[in-house]
Each structure stands twice: as C-alpha cells, then as structure tokens.
Amino acid sequence: MTAEQPRLALNDGKTMPQLGFGLWQVPADQTARVVREGVAAGYRLIDGAAIYGNEIGLGEGLRDMEVPRDQVFVTTKVWNDRQGRAETRAAVQESLRRIATERVDLMLIHWPCPAQGLFVETWKELIALREEGIVTSIGVSNFRVADLERIIGETGVVPVLNQIELHPRLQQAELRAFHAAHGIVTQSWTPLGQGRSFGAAPVLAAAERTGRTAAQVILRWHVQLGCSVIPRSTRAAGLAENAAVFDFALTDAEMAAIATLEAGERTGPDPAVFS
To answer: The NADP-dependent oxidoreductase domain covers which part of the protein (predicted)?
Structure first.
C-alpha cells in the first residue's frame, strides 16, 4: 500500500484516509512499535482512544515515524466517565498531553451512554473545542440513529463520522443509510467480526476467485461499501496483509452474496444500554 490510498471527504471540508489501523487491545509497551511499523507499511490513519491505555505509546510512535506528522490522521476518543462539558474539556486536554501533540485530527465521543443523559452536552463541548482549534474535526462512535438525530437537532452540527461495529454478520444498513443521507462517514470497527465469517461460502468463493485471504475479501467489502475501515494487527505481516485491498475488486454478485450473511450479531456491547 502507498500513502496515495483513497481519501474520504468529511462534511467539514477535510479529508481522511479510507483505511487505517486501530490500537484497541494493543499492549502499551508495543504501541510505539506498531505505530512506526504501520506508518512504514503505508498506513496514514491511526485510531486510538483514552480507554485503550496506550496514548503515550501512540505519541512515541508518531514522534519516531519517518513521515511528517501532518501526513498521518490521528483519532482519539472521550471515554464514558468523562462526559459533560467540564469533564470533556479536561479529558481532551489530558489526551493531548499523553500523545504530546497540540491537536488531534479527529475527536470522538466513544459511546452515547444514553442512560447518563450527557452526550448532547458532551457534543456541545466538542463543538467549542473545534471552534477553538484544539481539535480539527469532531465525530461520534457507536451512536444510533436516534442519538444522531438528537445531537444534530439540538446543535445543528453534524458529526463528520460515526464509528460503529460493522462486519458481514452486522451490516448496519439503517445507520449506513442515515449516514449517507447526512454526509457522515461510516467507519467500521471490528471489521473482520472476529473471523466469524471467514468460513462463509460467499467469502470463500470470493477468496478463491481473487487469490486473496478471507480477511482481505471482507476488508475489500468494507471499502466497496464506501466505509472507512480500521482493522487491528500487532504483526508487521498482518499490517501488510490488511493493507493489500486496493489492487483487486469484488463483483456485484460477490457483494450481494456477502450481504446475505447479515445476522444482527454483535461481538461488542449494545449502544442502547452500554455505559
């Protein structure tokens, strides 16, 4: 993969790389290495979060990489126990200190936590931080249609992105349609669905035809849906494999066949109740 991979337009006039890698469950003492190796492999999008406990390593990797900082798009997130205006501002500033950067490209609300009733207030503070230039773009993660409608209705500001669990067994058609109608980028977390579709007939058939792995077929499916996608790997070989998805394509028939794998099956929490 080269740095000239596709970029997706954001509704605030910025752009972001379509493919990146996530730092969830990457051990803190390996994070700097993974960031360096990922950037060396051509990735230009890194997805972090305060709750991952590895923002210091993220910052170390950014300082040690061999490309300019402005060529790498960095995301981090405000965790659930830091919602509310004052807490959100403090959490963002703490993340910036840990990463040792003056700004991040994208700051997300990690979960809506509807029972807390604070996500609108948290969103308003992210808007203020963006207006102050402390963060460049702002978005959300794990928001449902109702949550998106509420923050947009109460603030008039549309998130640039919603990062959601999305894989062949949880295809999120309703959310993707809402995103498309409002200019919100869909970003897929756990895009491989913990491998639960690797043995599915449509995936195996596409892998055989293209000479690619099941993982590459599924990542290509995300790309052709128009999603941003952030698989995770701590191995250089895994990073390289996940990146090799721009030199082949799935047919319309293969995309349709993978669509039949929808099962409403989550690997992670339900945003309606998780807090």
So the answer is: 19-261
Q: Which residue among 43, 52, 79, 111 is the active-site one?
A: 52
How much is the average pLDDT of 251-274?
98
Domain boundaries, the chain: 15-196+226-233
The tens digit of pLDDT for each residue in 55-107 reads 999 999 999 999 999 999 999 999 999 999 999 999 999 999 999 999 999 99
Question: Cα separation of 242 and 180, whole Å?
Answer: 25
Domain 15-196+226-233: homologous superfamily in CATH: NADP-dependent oxidoreductase domain (3.20.20.100)
Establish how many alpha carbons lie within 13 A of residue 257's alpha carbon, considering only the half-sphere containing its beta carbon. Answer: 16
Q: Which DSSP state fits 169? A: T
Q: Which amino acid is at 211?
A: G
**185-189: strand order across its sheet:** 21-22, 45-47, 73-78, 104-109, 135-141, 161-165, 185-189, 228-229
Instruction: With a cut of 60, say whether residue 180 has pLDDT above it.
Output: yes
Helix 119-131 and helix 145-155: axis angle, to 10°? Answer: 50
Query: Could you give the CA distance from residue 130 to residue 107 in angstroms, rounded to a whole number?
Result: 9
Question: Mean of the per-residue pLDDT values for the chain?
Answer: 96
Residue 76 burial class via C-beta count within 10 angstroms: exposed 0-12, middle 13-18, buried 19 and up:
buried
* pLDDT tens string 151-173: 999 999 999 999 999 999 999 99
Q: Is 52 annotated in the active site?
A: yes
Rounded Cα distance, 32 and 81, in Å: 26
